[in-house]
Amino acid sequence: MEGNNMAFVLGLFFSVVARAAPGDVIALTRLTAFSVTDVAYYRKQFFDPQLQATLPDIKNGVVLYKVVYETIDLEHNPSKASGLLIVPDIQGSFAVVSYQHGTQSNRKDVPSAANGEGQLIALTFGASGFVVSATDYLGLGDSPGFHPYLHAGSEAWAAADMLRATRKAAATLKLGLNSRLFLTGYSQGGHSTMALHRYLETKLAKEFQVAASAPMSGPYDLSGITLQGTLRNPSANASAYVAYALLAQSQIYQHDSWLESAIQPDVLAMLPDLFDGTHELSDIASALPTTPARVLDPKFFRELLNNDRYNVALRDLRRNDVADWKALAPIHLCFGKADRDVPYQNALIAFAHMTILGSSVELVNAGDHLDHSSAAKPCFVQTAKWFVSL
């Protein structure tokens, strides 16, 4: 009898392990809620009167949940990630918006923390009648290990697995979902949104059908205009972006050896502490030399500047370009023309390449004088209005 019991327990254990799959929900935790009155109040705090007037009507209050879910790591081994789920506080059958967040170096500054960016998407998309699914990405939030910054593959599968988790959490919450799926994200999230859109249409078309996609101010042409703009016309955060991207590439592709020849020795010694997941990007930028030219070894800097095809960093950046593919669902590319963090020409290049291939792409200029920070809220509002209209 004891042997039979042991066999039963072992069989149950292995069956449970076998059932664990990407997108399975590990934990679902209610965080907070905003009533319709709360939404109206906070919209006034977040948006200036002109933008408030153009926001979609408030349809409902929202409830925010943290989701911890199964995914895979860079070696395709089982892992976990976290994300934010925003649901309307009314009954219905709701479309889903998958939101991909912008660059963060502090693992706590993520959507599932339900502050800042998380509240912004709740006030724009959630209160406009959408369920919102927002991954924290690998290596941020509750996900172990380092964050593979601007790695298109993991951005896509972490978001796709969060969408799977959203469906399962919705069933638990007895929340109705319809089949309409919208994608959007800002800055790094624009890059992630392009990567996710491509992934869903090329790899998971039977599981997900994208209705529309709105990447915003993203570095789609990573190895081209993004890199050249960062090197030649650096913003205040340019040194941090370059260091973050190169450090991530060396870890993703296991090229630790070339970092010593790429980055100045005194700067290289600082990076493990600066990118330990506890520092804000602005603090990292303040600690680093003011321009990428002072971060990088002179020879390596010249190779990047001259687009040297043998440079290993350029090769790895090209692997993560997302500006040249054919999309089936329509795309809006919102940007600010004064953006120095992510040059707006990224949108122009993606528009040119993707239109030639037969994609339906529209450029949306949020403003000639808007930079990376000031274009964000206008782009959010434009995107929410477009999604509501479809």
Plain-language structure description:
The structure is a single chain. The N terminus is likely disordered. A nine-stranded mixed beta sheet has the order 1-2-3-5-4-6-7-8-9, sandwiched between helices. The chain has two domains: 280 residues, Alpha/Beta hydrolase fold, catalytic domain (Rossmann fold), CATH 3.40.50.1820; 98 residues, 434 Repressor (Amino-terminal Domain) (Orthogonal Bundle), CATH 1.10.260. The chain is globular and about 60 Å long. It contains 17 helices and nine strands. Helix 8 packs antiparallel against helix 9. By secondary structure, the protein is an alpha/beta fold.
Largest sheet: 9 strands, mixed
What would CATH call the architecture of the largest domain?
Answer: 3-Layer(aba) Sandwich
| Helix count from the secondary structure assignment | 17
What's the CATH class of the largest domain, please? Alpha Beta
What would CATH call the homologous superfamily of the largest domain?
Alpha/Beta hydrolase fold, catalytic domain
Please give the domain count.
2
